[in-house]
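Teaching assistant here, posting this on the class forum so everyone can see the example we discussed in section. The complex has four components, and the goal was to see what a joint structure prediction looks like when all of them are supplied at once.
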Amino acid sequence: DPTERAFQERIDAGGKIEPKDWMPAGYRKNLIRQIGQHAHSEIIGQLPEGNWITRAPTLERKAILLAKVQDEAGHGLYLYCAAETLGITRDEMFEALNEGRMKYSSIFNYPTLTWADMGAVGWLVDGAAIMNQVPLQRTSYGPYARAMVRICKEESFHQRQGFDIMMKMCAGSEAQKRMAQDALNRFWYPSLMMFGPSDAESVHSAQSMAWKIKMNTNDELRQKFVDQTVPQAEYLGLTVPDETIKWNDEKGGYDFAEPDWTEFYDVLAGNGPCNHDRLETRKQAWDDGAWVREGMLAHAAKKRTAKVAAE
Amino acid sequence: DPTERAFQERIDAGGKIEPKDWMPAGYRKNLIRQIGQHAHSEIIGQLPEGNWITRAPTLERKAILLAKVQDEAGHGLYLYCAAETLGITRDEMFEALNEGRMKYSSIFNYPTLTWADMGAVGWLVDGAAIMNQVPLQRTSYGPYARAMVRICKEESFHQRQGFDIMMKMCAGSEAQKRMAQDALNRFWYPSLMMFGPSDAESVHSAQSMAWKIKMNTNDELRQKFVDQTVPQAEYLGLTVPDETIKWNDEKGGYDFAEPDWTEFYDVLAGNGPCNHDRLETRKQAWDDGAWVREGMLAHAAKKRTAKVAAE
Amino acid sequence: MDNASLFQCLLRFGDNTLVLGHRISEWCGKAPALEEDIALANTALDLIGQTQMWLGYAAEVEGADRSADDLAMLRDVWDFRNILMVERPNIDFGHTIMRQFLFDAYHHAQLTALSRSSDPRIAEIAAKSVKEATYHLDRSAETVIALGDGTDVSHAKMQNALDLLWPYAGEMFESDDVDAQMAASGIAPDPATLRDAWDLRVRDTLSLATLNIPEDNFAHKGGRTGARHTEHLGHMLTQMQWLQRAYPGAVW
Amino acid sequence: MDNASLFQCLLRFGDNTLVLGHRISEWCGKAPALEEDIALANTALDLIGQTQMWLGYAAEVEGADRSADDLAMLRDVWDFRNILMVERPNIDFGHTIMRQFLFDAYHHAQLTALSRSSDPRIAEIAAKSVKEATYHLDRSAETVIALGDGTDVSHAKMQNALDLLWPYAGEMFESDDVDAQMAASGIAPDPATLRDAWDLRVRDTLSLATLNIPEDNFAHKGGRTGARHTEHLGHMLTQMQWLQRAYPGAVW
């Protein structure tokens, strides 16, 4: 098919695809899935951090956390807009999320149990997210790539803030150090899982990479994340909860243990520690908010009618 | 009317009226109002204390408080049963409460703000209640009098527990003493109001006293309460928030300032600090519980049918 | 004018923004629409920022070696000086936005007056804050109008919110000795003087929202003097102050 | 058998009753009927009483000069050893009573076995508690049956509660080194051995209640080891521990 070949050549040459351009149905479908899932992750991702906003230890920490979840909602907004250029509405995506037809990152199905988790989420979870997102600034779909540029700038800021919390905890009291270690213990493997299973087992990988929707293999990114994070843990005086971790001179990176992929598939299947609560919270918010959305629409319609009548 | 005269003579002679006996419509109506109001007060009275069950400072205090609210629910049960002998159902009374057609004691429209309030409620509020209830053990309506006997035994126990909390607070840290004084400051006048306005202004008094539904005047009981409570406050090292309080040798009691009756009527009119929240909590509980009550009734009906079929 | 009164006055400013900011922050991730999530987080953020300034200055004035965080995290209910309205629970989005509007209309008038304070520090904080308050007021007024004049359901919910909150509005205009001292020395306006501007704005907006202002002007009070808060504040503090109470002296 | 393991074992007993007792106590004054208010208060009271005994003994075994109250009021989430199910929020009466039933059926079997413990103190506490647990189980089972076999609405709500809670039941029967030590020394049964009695009772009751047991036997865990509680426990502690945290060392 010459159209399809021309499309692929344009991508190979580093060109951007824009909303009005022709694109293969699979490209469109995969992008909607991927951008939508990313957007949903920003939205659901507000909840584990929102869980500590009301318990933030200082006014400054509360302000920083508020600003962060506000950014996340903003990222959600950019991403939903990017997905909407592909012919799906935000409400359709919300409904797909609420009904379990669309996913969000499995990491947000883990609970935040102490203040140190606010540090660990920023340091590890945002850190892992950035590994994924930085290359996506060069993704082939224009609106997605441009959204990523804005998002990456803020995410790296969030990661630094998370690391700053960890530094404070690790320089603090015994209880704070214990909290920090406990947070690392709980978030280490779930963070590794964020990159997805080894590419051999990943369904969408080869075609997505050809289309430049996916820029690196899962294993590449995971390795990069481990290589970046292990020295940071050492700097903090924390122990990565993996006894097998060891520098491998030959490959120029760390050897490390695989996460428990059974747990990963359990979480995907809905059996993560917080799947039910996270989704229930969003559904409840959506249902409780119906009268507000309807009221606003009705008022906007009245205003339009009044304006037309006045013209 | 000879029937009415015989009725009054029986009361005057100290006899008890029982459910199946003839009684004047006004006697029945007044008793339903009074017993119902008393029952509702036990039910609503659970809420200000329930507010601190989840924050009780020790396991023992939590257990004592739980036992107390359990007693109060039990008192409610006795009293609703007593009222039911007069030809009204508990559900009818609940609905009248929820719709504001029946009242409960105005004291429960005041908030409980610190742990010392658990002491003050026991000491002052239960103390004032007992002043009212002890003579009602001799009231003319049999079921009411018998309910009062059981209730009084437990109430005086509650009052001692409340005083015990106050003693601990007053023997404690500066903050605890301050808490105790603050609780007395907030509960003193509302407790005085519990006896109702001066009898001159009280609508139901004269007839109720003739019928022995009411055994003492409001002012008598208030004086008795003040005379009992002022020395207790002194013993605790607390200051009653009334600069005019002074022993009056001539009357053999304390002189004291009247509470702000405007506030009393505001609270009666629904403008107390907690009227809205208390009633809303009960309505919500009643509405949320509808499916449970209906489910239980439906199951009981099925069991009866099955039993009949089996016979 | 004595320092104790100025301290009380600053607590009243700072506790209002602290407590309302906290309430608003409870919405995180649960608003009716993404735009509202963002707007609520933004409002909470502004209010917490203002709290840092007010309580920071209060701590200096007190001179008892306490910080803004100490004031926020280590006082018990009786020492809080916010009005009762801001500690009311969120209940639903209608109550939340109605409370916000009633407060914003007051806050805007108050900060406008405070930006002319004889105390340069107060004038400076108010000048910064009034820009945020203007934006908050525009937004909450707009939302109240949209929902009041939306569907029958949204109208009923907004009327219900107004009826419930109205008795908590009057406390904003109460005055006492502290206010008298502040007014006399040109530090802060007597709250009673803010009522006309507030009335005008509120009546105008609620009329556009097709909502009826309750006739009863009974006003709950006890928050800004600390005499009697609601039961809700204590529950809020169990969350807000948890970490500082559980790990005293730790650095976060 | 070392003391540290016995301490852990006792925390597991005491934290279950503490946390569930607290959850139940949240119902105060809000139950669907007066009789339920009384029954729930009674259950909470029994559970808190049992907590005093378990944590009292735990504190002695630890020998670190802590009291039962210290253990209840001054540990943070990670040091709690209750199963996740008991820290789940009440949600509604259906969830509350279903959770109670699933726990009571376990608790009854556990206490029956513990009343034959080689540790006389444990045997004594269990013998006292098992009478209460018997009553709790009779009552919660009866209520589950009535509501499961009540109206369509009550049936649906109970099925919903069962579906949600079922993945939290499996943790009750998990074993680890601590349990192995306890079982070896005859102090406490291996939890796995309690499953048959529990299954029998639960299947019998749920069948009478016309409810379907979910087929998926996935089990959440992390509570009894402390590895990973739910987010709900931390919020509970902000309330439960408030006074002891805010006024350290005070006598109440």
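For the discussion questions: The longest strand of chain A covers residues 246-248. Strands of chain A lie at 246-248, 253-255. Think about how each of these relates to the inputs above.
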